[in-house]
Design a protein that fits this description.
Layout (H helix, E strand, L loop, with lengths): L3 H16 L5 H30 L11 H17 L4 H16 L11 H11 L2 H5 L2
Length: 133
Amino acid sequence: MFSPKKKIPSLAAAGLALAGCGDGGANSELDAARDRIAQLDPSVTAFCMREIECDPYPEDPFFGDVDNCRTLILQLYGDYIQGSPDPDACGAAFIAAFDCAGDTPCDGILYACEVEYDATLAVCGDDEEEVTP
């Protein structure tokens, strides 16, 4: 005879374990991803401020405002970093690239940080290479 009081707790525990709750696995990955974003945020903020200062198109809905710029970049690059082969090294490479761009005068912003950008590709992987079968 089926006894819900005996089955439901064990089913719930199994479901939580499969979902990553209770064992620290999924939660620790999520916490690590949040930490990487928090570490990246000051560099991205400085970059966004520089981008807005240098941008000849201030009406741009994404880069015309620091908060919009930050949100867009942190979301896109956060996902990219998390999906990279080594998220910690990838995050550090992006911090260096955004720090460089945030400290670059407007007339050199496109070319001054090529070394740092190349380092992100080397450490994080190239999207085109990853999607090629």
